[in-house]
Amino acid sequence: MAAELRIGITALMLALVLSISSQFLLVTASSSPQDLQILNAERRIDLTSHIIRVFLTLKIENTGEAPAAEVLLAFPPTEVDRLALVKALVPAGKQKKKTYLPLDVKPTELPNAPNGAKIFIITLHNPLSKGETATLEVLYVLTHSLEPFPAEISQSESQLVYYRDSALILSPYYIKQQTTFLKTPSNKVESFTRVESTNRAGTDLKYGPYSDRAPYSFSPIIVHFENNNPFAVVEELVREVEISHWGSLQITEHYKLVHAGARHKGVFSRVEYQSRPSFSGVSSFKNLLARLPPRVHSVYYRDEIGNISSSHLRTDYQKSELEIEPRYPLFGGWKATFVIGYVLPLQDFLFESPDGRRYLNFTFGCPLADTVVDKLTIKVVLPEGSKDPSVVTPFPVEQRLETKYSYLDVVGRTVAVLEKKNIVPEHNSPFQVYYNFNPMFMLAEPLMLAIAFFLCFVASVAYIHVDLSLRKS
Ligand SMILES: *[C@@H]1O[C@H](CO)[C@@H](O)[C@H](O)[C@H]1NC(C)=O
Ligand SMILES: *[C@@H]1O[C@H](CO)[C@@H](O)[C@H](O)[C@H]1NC(C)=O
């Protein structure tokens, strides 16, 4: 088994190395970046939450001779570590029946990119021929990109943050026309970098339009503004999903939550907090919303002290919402550790694939709304006797196998462990775990129970027997 696994891993690494090097070859072999240009680029940066979402619309033209199937996106090296997700879509269909098709996006190495810019490749379904244009919609999400300044605030102060970016869109291509819009959560903008063509009205800040910018143009900007949204960050989340072929899916989630905003300074006054809620602790948060699947039951919420009763569950046929309230409101730098558990009906999540294997179809990510997870681990505990698990995820995820022993298990259960860093709500999409299952194992648990009863019975009979024989003599 261990040997098989090792061979599997070696094969996997080999495949990975090969795919990386083939990607690399593709980049160098395909049409050079100079053969594409951006006719028009529009970037909208949403700064209203602590999770930053950037929507980029690019109108691209192939000015070269050869067909172009790849479009490159560039990011400053400092942004790459905080980049949780990059998605690209291409509109398809006519005006009214317009739909968007997802495109494949992969990071790559481009050794000659200036200033250490990091490159992602978007692969088009239909290569652009000479002179042809296409419009791409790109979404990327950044975490930990708002720096509280001041770094410490008292209970009565509002939270101010810095956001750093460039007024010009970083790109390996020549950009004919471009504009950048930033949206702040409130009108309270302390300061912002003024460069050529900067405009501000209320919560909207505009840089541009700029025309005819060379590849890799950059113009740093800083915006200093108020943001009192809950900076809810789960430093570590472990979700255990246990499949029981007796009809249920048992979920247990361990959270290590922190308020990642400006650190709280001075003493906390609960009286002031409760009597002046609109002025006191505006950047703190006291409840969290977990979105759970419909038909959830046996929900509990506890911390190291014990059960916490302040949670409310609302359910309808489409979803369930669990509102939880930690024991104290969370201020900047404060932490809370807790566990949420619940049970779901198995038939909503376990299916049979056409090839006869069983599979779990469950949602990746974190159920808490508007939350960043620094490190997520999902452990899918398969029923005893399951074999050959294979995992299908919509994005790359680290995977390994473990064995879990619980009481009444004969050979232990296979656990598929998935790990990923820097998780945002956009990662909440379905993943599958396929496995083979021998129904004979359904009998293992009752058998173990029967054996246990039998042994007890034999033991007690023996005891009585000994007892009786002792008395006789
Ligand atoms: C906590 O809640 C769970 C589930 O509702 C229950 O089974 C358990 O007995 C409770 N524990 C305490 C200490 O109240
Ligand atoms: C998994 O479930 C989602 C809905 O939650 C559904 O759209 C998707 O098709 C399912 N995938 C598979 C492979 O069954």
Poorly predicted segments: 1-31
Distance between the termini: 57 Å
CATH topology of the largest domain: Immunoglobulin-like
SS summary, helix count: 4
Description:
The protein is mainly beta and 473 residues long. It has 4 domains: 1-27; 31-226, Sandwich (Immunoglobulin-like); 232-437, tricorn interacting facor f3 domain (Immunoglobulin-like, Sandwich); 441-473. The chain contains 4 helices and 30 strands. The protein has helices at 2-29, 77-80, 270-275, 444-472; strands at 36-46, 52-62, 68-75, 83-92, 99-108, 118-128, 133-142, 147-148, 152-153, 160-166, 174-183, 189-192, 198-201, 204-213, 220-226, 232-244, 248-259, 263-264, 288-292, 297-303, 311-315, 320-324, 335-345, 350-352, 358-363, 372-381, 386-392, 398-404, 413-423, 430-437. It has a 10-stranded mixed sheet with strand order 3-6-5-4-7-2-1-11-14-13. A 7-stranded mixed sheet has the order 20-23-17-16-26-29-28, with no helix packed on it. The longest helix is centred in the C-terminal third of the chain and has 29 residues, at 444-472. The N and C termini lie far apart (57 Å). Residues 1-31 have low confidence and may be disordered. Residues 351, 361, 430, 432 line the site of one 2-acetamido-2-deoxy-beta-D-glucopyranose. The site of one 2-acetamido-2-deoxy-beta-D-glucopyranose has 4 residues, from strand 30.
